[in-house]
Write a structure and sequence with these properties.
Blueprint (H helix, E strand, L loop, with lengths): L2 H6 L9 H4 L2 H21 L5 H12 L22 H11 L3 E3 L6 E3 L1 H20 L3 E2 L5 E3 H4 L3 H5 L7 E5 L2 E9 L4 H11 L8 E10 L14 E11 L2 H22 L5 E4 L11 E9 L4 E12 L1 H6 L2 E2 L13 E2 L1 E8 L1 H10 L16 E5 L8 H20 L4 E3 L7 H10 L4 E5 L1 H5 L2 E6 L5 E5 L3 H26 L1 E3 L6 H6 L3 E6 L3 H11 L20 E6 L24 E6 L3
Parallel strand pairs: 3-7, 15-16, 15-17, 20-21
Antiparallel strand pairs: 1-2, 4-6, 5-6, 7-8, 8-14, 9-10, 9-22, 10-11, 11-14, 12-13, 17-18, 18-19, 21-23, 22-23
Helix pairs in contact: 3-4, 4-14, 6-10
Bound molecules: zinc ion (ZN).
């Protein structure tokens, strides 16, 4: 039986109300959620008359109008803290980011999440264009012979390569691989195109998707069989130039997380054990998921040295050779670097809450929604039309200021229902506008990321809204950063290591950075239920810790050749502080 599909089935929403197919406990949770939502809606509807607000709240959560039959009515039915992966599936599907597909490990990116990818493409694409990288498109397929040319490299992927063996019913003479990454696809042509040092640097990037047929449990955005990414591949005459670029790209990756997605990351270098197969070294940005206490690799930039140029014969004549002098050809220095839609998963896990997605304003498809409120059965058709006109006029003001705004004039849905709907989708800022707001020349504001309401005067609408969006973006980052920082523990005594992991931290320890030592740490920190003193906690992963990175920003306290490695089984001296953690 395909357990992967079984695991996923509950998240596939076929349009029935949640209660029909849920277990009793899920139903109870749903009921609790409804009560909370009703309380909240009641509390929040202060701008309308009390009578109207109560009926809205009832309509919002428990009394669907005819139109809503067959539509998902209940919000997120599992709490983030109770069942993180169940919560993750629900916020993605109910927040309209993603849908499941009938091939396990493959997912449909819906417009709201693909918009974020487009924003990342635009921002990062602009950065690399400015430093001289050009986009191109190489084929999806690679022949077996070429794929196998770089042994150390392909060993890292061999088990996950998907093969095309037939065209219709006819077997192919030679099977053809679908790229798991494009080093082997591109580098034969680098050898062909790079004839002289004047052809350097060659710096190309592709926005594409690649396939790695993983058998581990798939997770949307984080581990998928096909994923979208960019892969940059560059060739340089001098190693120093190449190494400078590795760091430059890493800084752009950090920028995608920090500036666009409001997600803090730690920059560092991978250990020998964790570096990219076939690279000299790998630099990385590492994120942190507080609910599970696990680290997550955010994006990696590799210096490949001359490993691939040796294998693929990418050489130039030595420009330092004098006229007539015969010098041996030089192998070029290469880099490759990639950032994938995993970014979106990290963003969701960082900011989302029990009400659904929370999307930072800079990447949200819709930044602001204006919802008309205070319309009751007694409101005349004329007054209603006038209010809607005013709402449209407000939207025009925001559009003119390049704010991505939507008006929600849907008929047959109460304001409370609309509030929940936009909250679930993570929309950063809601504006409410009713007769009382109109009389006071203001709009009522409600931020997705915090409780409570405010107001903005209509005369200052555009600047007020933009200011609030900027504040939301900054606050999201600051809160996540504070959380991350408070969960990085500096540890020098091994006895504190596993308890710190179990308390959902990642740990900086003095490390000798050898592979053997890392393997031992992984074994020593794996949770062994039978002799573990800590109380059973089904949420905590039982996996051992691996190294996440050697942070560039090294605290004081490790003296090379003096400080002991933290691993009690290791006799080596420490080289540096290394960040370890359970990870995705
Ligand atoms: Zn060691």
């Amino acid at each position: 039986m395909d357990t992967e599909m079984a695991d996923q089935t509950p998240a596939i929403n076929l349009g029935r109300a949640e209660g029909e197919k849920s277990s009793k406990s899920a139903q109870k949770k749903a009921e609790k959620q409804e009560r909370l939502a009703a309380q909240k809606a009641n509390k929040s509807a202060t701008n309308t008359t009390k009578e109207a607000s109560r009926s809205e709240a009832r309509n919002a959560v428990s009394k669907p109008s005819k139109k809503l039959e067959g539509v998902e009515l209940v919000g997120i039915t599992v709490a983030r803290e109770d069942d993180f992966s169940g919560w993750y599936q629900q916020v993605l599907t109910k927040g309209d980011f993603l849908d499941y597909y009938d091939i396990s490990g493959c997912y449909i990116l819906k417009p709201a999440s693909y918009f974020i990818w487009k924003k990342i493409q635009a921002w990062f694409g602009d950065k690399i264009e400015k430093i001289g990288v050009d986009d191109c498109a190489f084929p999806l397929f690679v022949s077996e012979e070429v794929l196998n040319r770089e042994k150390a490299h392909i060993e890292g992927f061999a088990a996950e390569v998907a093969w095309v063996t037939h065209a219709g019913k006819t077997p192919l003479e030679k099977k053809i691989a679908i790229r798991p990454t494009s080093e082997t696809v591109m580098y034969p042509y680098y050898a062909k195109w790079i004839r002289s040092h004047r052809d350097l640097p060659l710096r190309l990037n592709q926005w594409n998707s690649v396939v790695r047929w993983e058998f581990k449990h798939p997770q949307p955005f984080l581990r998928t069989r096909e994923f979208h990414w960019q892969e940059g591949h560059t060739a340089h005459l001098r190693q120093r130039e190449a190494q400078t670029e590795v760091r430059q790209i890493l800084e752009f990756y950090a920028g995608v997380y920090e500036q666009l997605l409001a997600v803090p990351v730690i920059r560092g270098r991978k250990t020998e054990k964790e570096k990219f197969a076939g690279a000299d070294y790998t630099e990385t940005v590492e994120g942190f998921i507080s609910t599970t206490g696990r680290g997550i690799q955010g994006g990696t930039s590799h210096h490949l040295g001359q490993n691939f140029s040796n294998m693929f014969g990418i050489t130039v004549e030595d420009p330092s050779g004098k006229e007539g002098e015969k010098k041996p050809p030089l192998n070029v220095f290469q880099n490759s670097w990639g950032l994938s839609t995993r970014t979106i998963g990290v963003m969701v896990m960082t900011h989302g809450d029990d009400r659904g997605l929370v999307v930072p304003p800079r990447v949200s498809r819709r930044q602001v929604v204006i919802v008309p409120v205070g319309i009751t059965a007694k409101t005349s058709e004329q007054d209603r039309a006038a209010l809607y006109e005013q709402v449209d006029a407000l939207a025009l003001v925001l559009k003119a200021a390049d704010i991505r705004v939507e008006t929600d004039l849907r008929e047959g849905y109460s304001p409370g229902w609309k509030f929940n709907d936009w909250e679930q989708k993570g929309l950063p800022l809601r504006l409410e506008f009713g007769p009382k707001d109109a009389a006071a020349h203001q709009v009522t504001t409600s931020r997705r990321d915090i409780e409570g309401k405010g107001t903005i005067q209509i005369s200052e609408l555009a600047t007020g809204v933009q200011g609030l969006l900027d504040t939301i973006q900054k606050d999201l980052y600051d809160r996540a950063d504070e959380k991350f920082k408070s969960h990085v523990k500096k540890i020098t005594n091994w006895d504190d290591f596993v308890p710190a992991l179990n308390s959902k931290n990642v740990c900086l320890i003095p490390s000798c950075l050898t592979e053997k030592c890392e393997d031992e740490i992984k074994d020593l920190s794996a949770r062994k239920e039978e002799n573990d003193d800590t109380p059973q906690d089904e949420r905590a992963p039982s996996m051992g810790a691996k190294s996440l990175c050697i942070p560039f920003d090294q605290p004081e306290g490790v003296v090379k050749g003096e400080t002991a490695c933290c691993n009690p089984q290791c006799k080596n001296k420490a080289e540096a502080w290394c960040l370890f953690g359970r990870s995705y």
